[in-house]
Automatic annotation (TrEMBL):
Lineage, broadest ranks: Bacteria, Bacillati, Bacillota, Bacilli, Bacillales
Segments forming domain Major facilitator superfamily (MFS) profile: 11-207
Transmembrane segments: 12-32, 52-72, 79-98, 104-123, 135-158, 170-189
Recorded topology in the membrane: Multi-pass membrane protein
Superkingdom of this protein's organism: Bacteria
A Pfam family reported for this protein in Swiss-Prot or TrEMBL: MFS_1
Location (main, coarse): membrane
Annotated protein name in UniProt: MFS transporter
Organism this protein belongs to: Paracerasibacillus soli
Subcellular location: Cell membrane
Keywords associated with the record: Membrane, Transmembrane, Transmembrane helix, Transport
SUPFAM superfamilies: MFS general substrate transporter (SSF103473)
């Protein structure tokens, strides 16, 4: 393997790792059950009221993946992911500042929901493009698994922050944490050259 090919492979795997990290952040939806319980216990909200921000977030998550896909083709992944990172931080700050139904719907439901849609649309297709067809399924599975694996740590982390620092601060800390990680990971996200000369797996196909 030449030095150039080694650099290309390193770039490809860095994109895949960064995409997985971003999806681990976007799995913040799994934390809502913890917030919902505390909002009911501490602030007296009803189950219906606490389910509304989550429902709005799910709807906006799905809705914004469509324009996000268009933006990805036109603007590339980095700008899209920066937008996602900053929006999720802003959304969590709004949620923490208000701690009422309207504020939670706007902050977590609309702003953070849009952030999830923008962010989720980019990592998997971009990472897959760096690999030859016989490797794309594997890479896609790895990157997408980050979203599911978020359930392993997001809920316990949210519970720890709530119990230790309060509901409002838990929103602030999680928002800052996710913004920082997504922004850093976005710096490593780029599409491969269109000629396919740098795709991982070229050597395998020549054997």
């Amino acid at each position: 393997m030449t030095e150039l090919q080694h650099q290309n492979n390193s770039q490809a795997y860095m994109v895949a790792v960064s995409g997985t990290v971003i999806n681990l952040c976007l799995g913040v939806l799994y934390a809502w059950s913890v917030f919902s319980k505390e909002l009911q216990d501490q602030l007296g909200m009803t189950a219906t009221e606490t389910s509304l921000p989550y429902s709005v977030a799910i709807a906006l998550f799905a809705f914004f993946m469509v324009p996000a896909g268009i933006m990805l083709d036109r603007l590339g992944p980095r700008l899209l992911l920066l937008l996602s990172g900053f929006l999720i931080g802003i959304g969590f700050v709004i949620a923490g500042l208000t701690l009422n139904v309207v504020g939670l719907v706007i902050g977590f439901g609309i702003v953070a929901g849009a952030a999830m849609g923008f962010g989720y649309a980019a990592p998997t297709p971009v990472a897959a493009k760096w690999f030859k067809p016989h490797l794309r399924g594997t890479i896609t599975g790895i990157v997408v698994s980050g979203y599911g694996l978020a359930a392993v740590y997001v809920s316990p982390l949210a519970d720890y922050l709530i119990q230790g620092f309060g509901v409002a601060n838990a929103f602030y800390y999680l928002g800052a944490f996710f913004t920082i990680l997504i922004v850093i990971a976005s710096m490593f996200m780029k599409s491969p050259p269109k000629d396919g000369s740098q795709l991982v797996g070229n050597l395998l196909n020549r054997r």
